[in-house]
Each structure stands twice: as structure tokens, then as C-alpha cells.
Amino acid sequence: MLSMSTIKFPTLATTKHRVKTALDIFLANDVYLLEVDVNERAITHKFAEALQIVFRSWHVDCEYNRNLVDPKRLTIDETVHSVSPDIVIHRRGSAKNLLAVEAKKASTIGERLFTYDRNKLAQYCRELNYRYALFVVFYTGQQPQTRYQLQWFPDTIAGS
Known about the structure:
- The protein is built from three helices and nine strands, in the order ααβββββββαββ.
- The N and C termini lie far apart (32 Å).
- The model is unreliable at 156-160 (pLDDT under 50).
- The protein has helices at 12-35, 40-54, 111-127; strands spanning 59-62, 66-67, 70-71, 73-76, 79-82, 87-90, 97-105, 130-138, 148-153.
- Helices cover 35% and strands 28% of the residues.
- The chain has a single domain, classed as tt1808, chain A (Alpha-Beta Complex), CATH 3.90.1570.
- By secondary structure, it is of the alpha+beta class.
- Strand 7, helix 3 and strand 8 form a beta-alpha-beta unit.
- The strands form three sheets. The chain has a five-stranded mixed sheet with strand order 1-6-7-8-9, sandwiched between helices. Strands 2-3 form a two-stranded antiparallel sheet. Strands 4-5 form a two-stranded antiparallel ribbon.
């Protein structure tokens, strides 16, 4: 295992490329999950496995609820919330937080939930020092025109 001091943060371009590669791996191996509209947790689990392939020197965890050893908390709408991102790419036990991912199925996302998750992602960058955050919407069913849509945070990231 690499020591934490040798772990370098990938650039935004590299991170985006690796995420795209992971999505390609996920779709090649597990598109069936989207076709039959399985639970979001099953989708994010298999997507996280694909992310681990392309982020080998990082830990990829689902529903990770710790900020070092303390519970992960964010202030959203002036209220403190305990949070567990769907997927994080980080170094456990350190402050090296690369990417927080929230994923939703298009069939289940309403405007209120969409706004809440977007606010939460922006706060991951501000309060918990994630380098990047990503909102992924997965499209389910047999023949959608696209299988996913990505929105990167902070909002100032160009070329999303």
C-alpha cells in the first residue's frame, strides 16, 4: 500500500476521465441493473466497484459517514445534518478527500430532492474539503437515449 504522503490528488481533467472510464466499465458489466430499474443502492454499489478499478490508490466507499473519526455533518439551510454520501473517494483516516458522489435514478428524483442533493454536494466541498463533488442521474428502463447525466461541483468547475 502507498503511504499517504505519496498520494497526489489527480487533476480535474484526470478525475473526470477516470469517472467516465468507470461509468463505461459499469455500463459494460452492469447495465442490466439500469434496464430493470433496481434499487439505487445496488446501482451505486456496482458503480463504486468500477470507480475502485480506476482509482486504485484511493479508498472508494459507499455510504461512508465519517469525517476522520467523527460523524460526517453538514450545515444545509442553517441546520446541521448527519450525512453519508452515496460514494466517496478518499484516504480513510486522513483529510485527503477527493470526490463525493450523490447518485439518483431519474425516475425517483423530484425538484425538492434534486435541490437538496445539489446543496449538499456544494457543502461537501466547502465544509468537508472534498476536492470535487459529483451528482449522477441514472436513467433506467430498456432503451433510454442516455444512461446518465453528470453535474460537477463546485459550480465554478467549467466543462462539466
